[in-house]
Amino acid sequence: MSHGLTRREREVTDRNEIVRILDTAKFLHLGMVDGDEPYVVPMNYGYTLENDQLTFYLHGAMRGRKLDVLRRNPKICFTLECDVVPFEGDVACRYGMTYSSIMGVGTAVIVEDVAEKQQALSLLMKAQTGGDFEFSERMVSVVSVIRLEVSSFTAKHRPLPTK
Ligand SMILES: Cc1cc2nc3c(=O)[nH]c(=O)nc-3n(C[C@H](O)[C@H](O)[C@H](O)COP(=O)(O)OP(=O)(O)OC[C@H]3O[C@@H](n4cnc5c(N)ncnc54)[C@H](O)[C@@H]3O)c2cc1C
Question: Which atom from ligand 1 is nearest to the alpha carbon of 144?
Answer without folding.
Answer: 11
